[in-house]
Amino acid sequence: MNMLESSVNQAAGAAAGAKPYLQIVDVVKKFGDNTVVDHINLNIARNEIFALLGSSGCGKSTLLRMLAGMETPSSGRIILDGEDITHLAPYERPINMMFQSYALFPHMSVAQNIAFGLKQDGLPRGEIAERVERMLELVQMKKYASRKPFQLSGGQQQRVALARSLAKRPKLLLLDEPLGALDKKLRQQTQLELVNMIEQVGVTCIMVTHDQEEAMTMAGRIGIMSDGQLLQVASPGEIYERPNCRFTAEFIGETNLFGGHVVEDEPDYVRIQSAELPRPVHIGHGITGTLGMPVWLSLRPERVGVSRQQPVGDGNWAAGTVHDIAYLGGFSIFHVRLPTGKVVKASVPATRWREEAAPTWDEPVFVSWADNDAVVLTQ
Amino acid sequence: MNNANNLSVFGKLSLGAGFAFLYLPIVVLVVYSFNASKLVTVWAGFSTHWYGELFRDEAVLSSLWLSLKIAFLASTMSVVLGTIAGLVLARFGPFRGKSLFAGMITAPMVMPEVITGLSMLLLFVQMQQWFGHPAERGVLTIWVGHVTLCMAYVTVVIRARLVEMDRSVEEAAMDLGARPLKIFFLITLPIIAPAIASGFLLAFTLSLDDLVITAFLSGPGSTTLPQLIFSRVRLGLNPEINALATITVLAVAVLVVSANRIMVRAERRRARLAAAAA
């Protein structure tokens, strides 16, 4: 919980900072009648790594392209470091982007690729050489300086693309699906490497991804996008533990969702009755809502315990039978079918079954959770 | 690849028939270029006499030179115009009259050459009456006619390359501070260079052997090689033309084989380096 609180504070601090570094003010993008980006407001602090997370077609890439200047907003403004850049051409913006396909210039060597942007700025030769050298060092590609892009592996191309977009020391770095073109194993290893390099340079960074693991590993804050709208902006921990709507809860990680309504509404606790659960769910804190109001409950599988003994107390547990078990080594996912027909997923660590044997198929068990484990979603 | 020895008897026969169909006429042509006789069809012993005759024939040499000149100028111009047209069609989104423009550019490919030649002739005659220019038909009018034809092919080749090219490469250049014109010369042009080269070669060969359009648009003193050969055929051939054809075949063969060699070598080198990188 400590980590969670500190990241909440950090996020709050970023949002409440005296003057945000990048301001996206009420930006809308329409293609014909189709609204792709729908009134987005977002502030980014200096040196923050921010991830826009959403499934394909949610408008995240269009938003990124508007920041790069490849698309012009239908309305709204984009302000970077006090300067309104909404209508600047891409080649006039102090922003550089790393493309999903890397978009390396195929007819130029690695060093020439990195030097390209510096040459456009008309820097003296000596300085270009020196900066290219430093970038090659940063991404550890020094010995490949004279190679052509097609002679490099995917991971090496990705590092060259990063070096090229950092060489001009942009005020803002944009990453479009930065690791999307790499295979899974290489991706995990590269995620932290990439963050280290970005932090080493100290650049404000916005990335777009559909991979929640990538967003959670790399970014300090995440914005969940769906249908052109920003649904929630928060730290990875908060987004996972305290989703503010049904979409976020389902989109990030696995969860058990129960529909229900408030049956007891007190300042320090609420009770929620769901048709899918045999007894009311007790929530250990008050919510902003009214009696009888329909809500959703989100219960993460790792919060659900599985036991053979009936849990004490009058709420937050249910009897059922083991319907399915997915053994995943370190933990197993138990699918427990309740008498109501609802299947509850419980992620149980292997260490849980030291004293007794793990339940098996069709065995009657109880699922239970603590007072604050279920998250009440009012949207 | 399957070994050729695996072919059945029927396979071998059809392969032989196919090769004979394709290459027998050329073999006959080459053989008869060494004919001592004055008549193409009557064999009278081996001789290189007609090769000597060819190189002393001023008419052949000057028309060959003219054909090469026109082919070079026409293919250069069609590459310039074809690149611009390909760029407009591939990059400038939908605009009013785009399909009309695309249709007009590629029309000479499907239109009978007789029609293209005739309509251009009528245009030039009309222009001469109205503003006295072009004063007469000759190299200039042939050049214009050939550019119209060749440009259609070049545009198709270059447009196809531009469409399959990854646009984000151009966007990356823009993102790094290059303006559109600079992007074209520093990024787009080098990437589509192979397509431009093959477009140029295609245009060159089209122009070099064009007879129909040339026939409509040529004037006195502008006889291209195909025209000369064609007119001599009517007067009765002699093995001199066979000698000319043999030299042409040889030149084409050398060019094709060496171009192929270079490409294969580059491809091998590429594969080796790519393998080393992986």
Automatic annotation (TrEMBL), chain B:
Protein's cellular compartments: Cell membrane
Membrane-spanning residues: 12-34, 70-89, 101-125, 140-162, 183-208, 241-263
Record-linked InterPro entries: Bact_Polyamine_Transport, MetI-like, MetI-like_sf
Membrane topology reported for the UniProt record: Multi-pass membrane protein
GO biological process: transmembrane transport
SUPFAM superfamilies reported in the protein's UniProt record: MetI-like
Keyword terms, alphabetized: Cell membrane, Membrane, Transmembrane, Transmembrane helix, Transport
ABC transmembrane type-1 domain: residues covered: 64-259
Keyword presence, tRNA processing: no
Cell membrane found in the keyword field: yes
GO cellular component: plasma membrane
Family in the record: Belongs to the binding-protein-dependent transport system permease family. CysTW subfamily.
Protein known as: Spermidine/putrescine ABC transporter permease
Organism: Crenobacter luteus
